[in-house]
């Protein structure tokens, strides 16, 4: 597989922002970060714990001097400290990338009705949906001149996807939160949008039972008959986070080679 090449330029020159949720080199958040850096952005990265820091630091260092901040989205004190460090270093920021989600593996298999627990529901909602509301509120306080926020979602929020289960419900809450945040923050010149990427080879996809089948179906049923490409997802994020995306807010933008718009796959191959 050839290495992804991200177009360089100066669309983000002079802009600073926080990227939350990079897990490894295959993370969508990392692809977005690389594209933003290629366009001149200054980046800060949050990490949950020491294990993730060790995994992510070499990636961050490849972009230059690392600015990494510990942030546990389930802990208010940790989030307070994270955004205080951002304020102390930069004063203001221009964008936020939120790529954080979680659900227990036992709940991402089989029956949604039978396997969803009270604690699993609460945890999925807190980490996958409320964390964006909380981070967005804090980030908005550092955006006196306006800005842009992007979160990551998936089609399982709109339609039933086997084994996506409680994560699909959490992503639906995330998308609704995006619209309400866009309404609240719009008068301050802050845009809030979601990217709905197709199946990609990430840790998140690996945690879903039948993830490989989702990849195959996404490719075969899509309008373009191809896998979702990181260049497309990162490029869409660049559009939404840069001044190119002015006037676009409250949107869930699908980047999945057209898969989301297909009701019935082509039957030509069966004829």
From TrEMBL:
<feature type="active site" description="Proton acceptor">
    <location>
        <position position="154"/>
    </location>
</feature>
<keyword id="KW-0275">Fatty acid biosynthesis</keyword>
<feature type="binding site">
    <location>
        <position position="21"/>
    </location>
    <ligand>
        <name>NAD(+)</name>
    </ligand>
</feature>
<comment type="pathway">
    <text>Lipid metabolism; fatty acid biosynthesis.</text>
</comment>
<keyword id="KW-0276">Fatty acid metabolism</keyword>
<dbReference type="GO" id="GO:0006633">
    <property type="term" value="P:fatty acid biosynthetic process"/>
</dbReference>
<feature type="binding site">
    <location>
        <begin position="72"/>
        <end position="73"/>
    </location>
    <ligand>
        <name>NAD(+)</name>
    </ligand>
</feature>
<feature type="binding site">
    <location>
        <position position="103"/>
    </location>
    <ligand>
        <name>substrate</name>
    </ligand>
</feature>
<feature type="active site" description="Proton acceptor">
    <location>
        <position position="164"/>
    </location>
</feature>
<keyword id="KW-0443">Lipid metabolism</keyword>
<feature type="binding site">
    <location>
        <begin position="27"/>
        <end position="28"/>
    </location>
    <ligand>
        <name>NAD(+)</name>
    </ligand>
</feature>
<feature type="binding site">
    <location>
        <position position="48"/>
    </location>
    <ligand>
        <name>NAD(+)</name>
    </ligand>
</feature>
<feature type="binding site">
    <location>
        <position position="100"/>
    </location>
    <ligand>
        <name>NAD(+)</name>
    </ligand>
</feature>
<comment type="similarity">
    <text>Belongs to the short-chain dehydrogenases/reductases (SDR) family. FabI subfamily.</text>
</comment>
<keyword id="KW-0444">Lipid biosynthesis</keyword>
<keyword id="KW-0560">Oxidoreductase</keyword>
<dbReference type="InterPro" id="IPR002347">
    <property type="entry name" value="SDR_fam"/>
</dbReference>
<keyword id="KW-0520">NAD</keyword>
<dbReference type="GO" id="GO:0004318">
    <property type="term" value="F:enoyl-[acyl-carrier-protein] reductase (NADH) activity"/>
</dbReference>
<feature type="binding site">
    <location>
        <position position="171"/>
    </location>
    <ligand>
        <name>NAD(+)</name>
    </ligand>
</feature>
<dbReference type="InterPro" id="IPR036291">
    <property type="entry name" value="NAD(P)-bd_dom_sf"/>
</dbReference>
<dbReference type="Pfam" id="PF13561">
    <property type="entry name" value="adh_short_C2"/>
</dbReference>
<protein>
    <recommendedName>
        <fullName>Enoyl-[acyl-carrier-protein] reductase [NADH]</fullName>
        <ecNumber>1.3.1.9</ecNumber>
    </recommendedName>
</protein>
<dbReference type="InterPro" id="IPR014358">
    <property type="entry name" value="Enoyl-ACP_Rdtase_NADH"/>
</dbReference>
């Amino acid at each position: 597989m050839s290495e992804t090449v991200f177009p360089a330029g100066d669309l983000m020159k002079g802009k600073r922002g926080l990227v939350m949720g990079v897990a490894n080199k295959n993370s969508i958040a990392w692809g977005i970060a690389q594209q933003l850096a290629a366009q001149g952005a200054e980046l800060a990265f949050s990490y949950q714990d020491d294990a993730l820091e060790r995994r992510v630091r070499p990636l961050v260092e490849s972009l230059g001097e690392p600015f990494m901040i510990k942030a546990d989205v389930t802990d208010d004190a940790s989030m307070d400290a994270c955004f205080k460090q951002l304020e102390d270093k930069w004063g203001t920021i221009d964008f936020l990338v939120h790529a954080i989600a979680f659900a227990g593996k036992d709940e991402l298999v089989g029956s949604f009705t039978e396997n969803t627990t009270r604690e699993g529901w609460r945890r999925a909602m807190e980490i996958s949906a409320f964390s964006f509301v909380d981070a967005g509120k804090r980030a908005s306080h550092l955006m006196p001149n306006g800005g842009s926020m992007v979160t990551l979602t998936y089609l399982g929020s709109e339609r039933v996807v086997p084994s996506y289960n409680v994560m699909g419900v959490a992503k639906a809450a995330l998308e609704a939160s995006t619209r309400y945040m866009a309404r609240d923050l719009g008068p301050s010149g802050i845009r809030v949008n979601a990217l709905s990427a197709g199946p990609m080879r990430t840790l998140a996809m690996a945690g879903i039972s039948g993830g490989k089948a989702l990849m195959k179906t996404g490719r075969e049923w899509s309008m373009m008959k191809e896998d979702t490409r990181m260049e497309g997802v990162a490029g869409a994020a660049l559009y939404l986070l840069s001044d190119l995306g002015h006037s676009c807010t409250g949107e869930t933008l699908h980047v999945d080679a057209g898969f989301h718009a297909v009701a019935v796959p082509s039957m030509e191959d069966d004829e």
